[in-house]
Amino acid sequence: MTLPISAFIICQDEERFIEPCIRSLHMCAEIVVVDSGSTDETFDILDRLTAEGFPIKLFREAWRGYGGQKQFALEQCTQPWCLSIDSDERLSPLIAQDLPGLITQDVAGWRITRYPYLDGFGYAPPQAKERMNLRIIRNGAGHFDPKDKVHEGLYVTGEVKNAPRGGLLHFRPIHLHEQFLKENKYSSLKAQMKVTQGKRAQPWKMAVSPWIYFLRLYFHNGLWRCGWAGFIRAMLGATYAFMTEAKRWEHEAIQAVPPVEPDFSKLDRY
Prior knowledge:
CATH class of the largest domain: Alpha Beta
Domain Glycosyltransferase 2-like: 6-93
Shape: globular
Order of helices and strands: EHEHEHEEHEEEEEEHHH
Family: Belongs to the glycosyltransferase 2 family. WaaE/KdtX subfamily.
Strand content: 15-25%
CATH architecture of the largest domain: Alpha-Beta Complex
Distance between the termini: 76 Å
Structural class: alpha/beta
Largest sheet: 9 strands, mixed
Protein name: Glycosyltransferase
Number of helices: 7
Organism: Stagnihabitans tardus
Radius of gyration: 21 Å
Helix content: 25-40%
């Protein structure tokens, strides 16, 4: 069964992940892929999948930032419904089964959950799902904010519901060394975004936010069910929260006290 859905993906150098993602979208009438400069085998994989019959529409677009890039991809969609999915995500069997019924309902969009793959454990059990994210919308009912440098999200006018079951399977196994680099990068982008929005740093969040983040992931989201792998993932989230708030404070602190070396002659008490 082909459904009137445009799935859209932004990518760059995703040869390890993009094929299973696209194969999970076999029911979609259109698959929009926006590439920002791949130099690996991504294009060869897309060509092969297109030859197999997957309805891929490929666009090459310079990087605009996460919000801007996804908004560009959304604007290329032509079907009545649009599905936002990343190249390292796959539609789970249950959500795929429910899609025909979901898109017949009189709503503007659907939130769906995501199940992380944890190194040394596997996919988190269904009881350890992440929070619900808006990923399915009627075409024209929503948009991304191009100013969102990271953690971009859809803004929709109209009623949005939670899908009752299934979700996205997130498969990107990377070593902790790479994961910390990723958290460092994303926390910098988040801190810069807050500065651009004119939001002042709140130093108390350095002490509070990491704990809130950890407790939400570990207990509320159920990562405690995943053993030490779940504990590590929750701690990574807490680290990201701390780095984001610390970088916001650092930005303002350096502006107030620029790093100029003091007069050595006045340091006799050291």
